Amino acid sequence: SRRNAKQHRYPPGPPGLPILGNLLDAPKEYSWFTFARWGREYNSNIVSFTVLGRRLVVLNKYKDAKEIFEERSRIYSDRTSAVMATELVGWHRNFGLTPYGELWRLRRRMFHQHFKPQVLPAYHGKLMKGARSLTQMLLESPDGFLKHFRRVPGTTVLDVVYAMDLDPRDNATMEPIEKAVKTFADLADAGAFLVDLIPILKYLPSWLPGVGFKRQGAVWGRWVSRMHEDPYQEVKSDVMSGKSRPCVASDLIREFEDRLNDNSVEDSTVEEDIICVTGTAYTGSDTTTFALANFVLAMLLFPEVQQRAQEELDRVVGRDRLPDIADQDSLPYTASIVKELLRWRPIGPVAVPHRSTADDWYEGYFIPEGSLVIGNVWAILHDEERYPDPEAFKPERFLTAEGTLDPSVPDPSQAFGFGRRICPGRYFAQIALFLYISHMLAAFSIEKPVDEMGNVVEPTRECEARKFWHPKPFKVKFKPRLEGLESMTRTPGS
Ligand code: HEM
């Protein structure tokens, strides 16, 4: 290793132990802050460290992320995945984890075809319905706001993907799906299982002592399999019996119908491709949930932003109806809240690492094949040169003095990742966020609650800060601010 270090100048970083590398001191929480600090300590925008022989390279500046992930995307677009999550639990079906190659390209294309900006107007009605439901649910049971933030985006995606016209309060249908998706986060939180480090252990029989991971994997695997299979099979049987059910799954089934029915074609993967593409969409909706929790926190911490948005909404939309997707262009300040939210507290502050597939040299540093390259989204979106006063929540930074969108301010698109693996659900997510946020701001005054003693309850400073970044459960008051709000929530948008 000493000879290698001499030959190859790796990006600087903290010294590690033999074999273990930085396993013991690699940050478990708020890694984005540590990576930025290392950058300052080692006086380099690119830092690196190792864990069990694998090199991790962190890019703290936009210019390097752009060069590596975009200009050199051919060799920086692969993924690494853990045996427990993919092979034992079944998350290999999520194409976000699929290795870079033909299969990933095919599934990504199928997904993009149904989530590209041009097709999204077809989903506006369903998105509007979701925003109205969210408002209704916050009116009925404001204390359950965090649960509503999970349910509503989730049911909207299920409606778009499988035409499942669900009431977000439908626990019986939603709970098993949510349980399956939670295993994704639980696996990420648990870190590496022994089987991830020693893959051959996956062949041990489940009944052996110490092989609890296999039994756990089998239980989680059943939930994950049902989440992928059940809604798809329902749509398929409807399509086969000629029932109309417009949605992503039925479009894909019709598109590939010949190959699905023709048993002589040795192409049994078409069905698997459709199952994977549709199943992946629901998993993506989790991020919207966390963004909404961050939004409420921002409104409590920066009340002047809420006030300014409500002035805009009252002026443009009025006080006798709820906002509509058609209002978006006339609500630049409210629309900029979505951008600032993604910038101020990116939900995935280190996105998802990209694995490199060839040796490379960049800025005099050696990046060996198999490195995990991490774009430090938080550092990029809090770079003072790009966004002055980065800790402040200032939607107006995206606007000109006249209040229109300022094209010279960089769009915080890195919140959705980088290069060829950038989030393909980002256009959908941004419309959904605009609708949920504009509805909440129009309908409610979002305030700090007061306890029994009359003291104002300050919002939490505690966060989940491993893979995703969002506040731990906290209390808030949603005070209705429109006359006749209840009946407005029952009026469909245009
Ligand atoms: C605020 C909401 C969202 C945020 C912040 C977000 C963020 C991200 C990020 C950071 C990545 C990794 C990109 C990379 O590897 O460089 C990603 C991937 C992905 N996202 Fe999203 N996402 C959001 C919503 C959604 C939604 C609603 C969907 C589905 C409708 C979705 C579907 C996906 C998929 C399929 C991938 C995997 C792409 C691939 O590996 O090729 N996301 N997202």
From TrEMBL:
Keywords: Heme, Iron, Membrane, Metal-binding, Monooxygenase, Oxidoreductase, Signal, Transmembrane, Transmembrane helix. Pathway: Secondary metabolite biosynthesis. Its cofactor is heme. One of its GO terms (cellular component) is membrane. Heme binds at C423. Transmembrane segments: none annotated. It is a single-pass membrane protein. Belongs to the cytochrome P450 family. This is Cytochrome P450. It comes from Phanerochaete sordida.
